[in-house]
Amino acid sequence: MKAILIGNRERFEKFYPDTDFANSVEKVYMTMEQVQCGIPQNALDAEFLAADAIAQVPERLMNQLPALKIIHSEGVGYNGIDCAAAAKRGIYVCNNRGVNADAVAEQTILLMLGLLRSVVAGDTAVRAGQQIRRKESMMVNGITELGECRIGLIGFGDIAKAVAARLSSFGCELFYHASHRKDPETERRCGVSWLERDEMLRTCDIISIHVPVTPDTVNMVNETFLKMMRPTALLINTARGEIVDNQALKKALTEGWIAGAGLDTIAPEPVPADHPLLDAPGILFSPHIGGVTTGVFRKGHRSIWTAFEQVSKGARPVNIVNGL
Q1: What pLDDT is stored for residue 257 in this prediction?
Q2: DSSP characters for 35-80?
Q3: How far apart are CA 105 and CA 238, in angstroms?
Q4: Mean pLDDT, 10 residues at a time, the chain of 324 residues
Q5: Closest to 217 measured CA to CA, from 162, 172, 178, 255
Q6: Cα–Cα distance measured from residue 82 to residue 59, given in angstroms and rounded to the nearest whole number
Q7: Residue 35 has what pLDDT?
Q8: For position 290, what pLDDT does the model report?
Q9: Residue 269 known to be catalytic
């Protein structure tokens, strides 16, 4: 048995589960750049493939692998995998749904607090010997506590639920909007109330994005979306960069339609030096680390190898995303 592992070899080796099955599988490591040149001869009989969550796995690559049975994302994202082509071949496409929920929830709240407390400007002021001036300025301008905020969650999957669970301890008023409203018991348990999206944008202090990338969500955060938000509101995106129209967000921040944005994800990735958002005011960036904690990788890689073992025995893996 053979597996192709696309992405960072050091990471795959570090989090590799030491099980009898995993030890019995021959491993072929490839970088995302190498994949563009095709599968090497020694890997053409691979049955299993795992790929970095942002890797491209097109149909032409699958066509080189006649024995392929399963493609597994290393993370939650899988929009680089041609799911329809895999389904035609009867190849399972799976992801690590929910594995990063707690970690991304922490990053989401970090960005909210970082913006509300102006942590970057504060750090800069202290280092420049301007601590008192900065402190007095912030006292006059006002510091909003997270618990005072009305927070709207767009999307209500595993990550949004984890965010809601943590925000409840701050005393926030929590709302959500998703393609399907949850049952009353779920809303009660999570401490959230349903709002139509436009009402949420008009009334919430913080809007946090938690939807996947689909044709309907690409550039969902556009000029129309941003103009509905309050001028004092904050936008948080720990989902995917493709959901935000970069030029629209830059315009919104430059012209004061909203007060700030906290972004863990930006499109494209890697972020080029001339990206339009890099010189926009009011943004707190983090380098797409929300879902890449040690715990996430440990759990995620264990799930990958468990899925490979299930498929090797003719069983269905969990977290199938291409409808098989």
Answers
A1: 98
A2: HTT---GGGTT--EEEE-TT--B-HHHHTT-TT--EEEESSS--TT
A3: 9
A4: 96 94 96 90 96 93 97 91 97 95 97 97 96 96 96 97 97 96 96 97 98 93 98 97 98 98 95 97 96 93 97 96 94
A5: 178
A6: 6
A7: 86
A8: 95
A9: yes
Q: Which residue out of 136, 148, 255, 269 is catalytically annotated?
A: 269
Of 72, 97, 240, 301, catalytic: 240
Please tell me which residue in 72, 177, 210, 288 is annotated as part of the active site: 288
User: Is 309 an active-site residue?
Assistant: no
Written as six digits, the tokens of 78 are: 């899988």
What pLDDT shows up at residue 79?
A: 85
Q: Is 189 a catalytic residue?
A: no
The count of other CB atoms within 10 Å of the CB of residue 201 is 24
Q: Could you say which DSSP state residue 128 is in?
A: T
CA–CA dist 101, 156 (Å, integer):
11
Side-chain-facing half-sphere of 48: CA atoms under 13 Å: 28
